[in-house]
Amino acid sequence: MGKNQAYKAMQRSRVGSTSGTPDDVEDGMVDGSFHSPEWHAARLASLKTSHTVTWEEYKKKQKEEEIKKGELEADKDKMMREYRAQLDAERATKLAHGRNHSKDKLTHRKDKKDKDLRKRSNKKRKVKYLRKSSEPNSSGSSSESSSSDDDSRESKRSKSRSRKRKDKGTSQNPSI
């Protein structure tokens, strides 16, 4: 027995009720409902006319949604297959050209020559800057040790240049 039922039984025994039915309210206590019977009737009527869905309607709606989802997925799969086919076709055309195309070689050679020219011009600029900074007229703050370092660097550079020239000459004329 719950707490409330035990309490009601105790109240009945005090009052002297002998009916024995738990639904009878002879003790003057309310059944716990705060609404009138008219309100309850209106509530039940509104629940009957509400937009609740029956099980069959629910299942039918679920099937329709599944069919729509299936169609959307099929469309997405179809679009993806078309896209992949397009990418494969583009890749095949690019690979059909091969690696040894004359256009590509010419542009590659030009790029390489431009890069070499830029390197040489940068080296020339550095050498000119070093020569200007090592001159005694440029600034009196440079010490003799820094100028001797610059001279040693310059001599190393000239030696490496002469080696490169010799290597180029021997590679062009192997009979020498």
Strand content: under 5%
How many strand segments? 0
Shape call: elongated
Radius of gyration: 50 Å
**Helices and strands, in N-to-C order?**
HHHHH
Percent helix range: over 70%
State the distance separating the first and last CA atoms. Answer: 120 Å
What structural class should be given to the helix and strand makeup? Answer: mainly alpha
Mean pLDDT: 75
Number of helices: 5
Uncertain ranges: none
Largest sheet: none
Explain the overall architecture.
The chain has 176 residues and is mostly helical. It is elongated. The protein has helices spanning 3-15, 37-48, 55-97, 102-134, 144-172.
Give the secondary structure arrangement, pairings included:
Blueprint: H1 3-15, H2 37-48, H3 55-97, H4 102-134, H5 144-172
In short:
With 176 residues, this protein is an all-alpha fold. The chain has five helices and no strands.
Features:
176 residues, mainly alpha
